Amino acid sequence: MTDFNGRTVLVTGATGGIGGAIVRQLVAAGADVIASGRSADGLAAIADETGARTLTFDLTSEESVRSALQDLDLWGVVNCGGFGGEIATPMETDIDVFDKVINVNARGALLVTKYAAASMIRLGQGGAIVNVSSQAGLVALAGHISYGSSKAALDNITRVSALELGAHGIRVNSVNPTVVMTPMSAWYWGRPDIEGPFLDQMPLGRWATEDEIAAPVVFLLSDGASMISGVSLPVDGGYTAR
Known about the structure:
Number of domains: 1
Number of helices: 8
Structural class: alpha/beta
CATH topology: Rossmann fold
Largest sheet: 7 strands, parallel
Number of strands: 7
């Protein structure tokens, strides 16, 4: 049920840890993967490893997204490109950082959906879109006013897109991961005063791995999820079940 039979799937944010894991699992499942991002050098490594095609464009520019996607023949999309922003309260937030986080995480995913969906509708073969959101879009996390707001917006983009695109046989879902402990996230989540109390509230009591986020993304794209649309799926060790 997860054999993609050469279907073309675009993955944004493919130079990141989760994006790279998604590319690897999709290639292994038989998809024709287009790995995208802003850095051609960063994409070269995942392309050399997996054989994926590459495509560079800027998520913050509608013209860049339009020119990159308008002539593609796509069956699926993973919106994994993102920007973490800052750790700040609503009183402390830098509104310019807030604007950038919204611009990349919500507006950028909407732009990709806008032009990718046009391709999918034109082909008339249905398809699937998966947005990589966050547990921060489902529950309030201290210090996450910018990131959480952007991911809550992304979850609503998921639901409205599922509503609008269902008539074309296109499913749209989100996955909402907990933290994947990488060097990039360790500066905050690895602090003893943050890590311990957070994991104490998580039923599984550990951080996720990149492959544990990629696997449900691949499932939601697959025919095994053919009746699932409009869902925001927590992949968070039970944290949001509290």
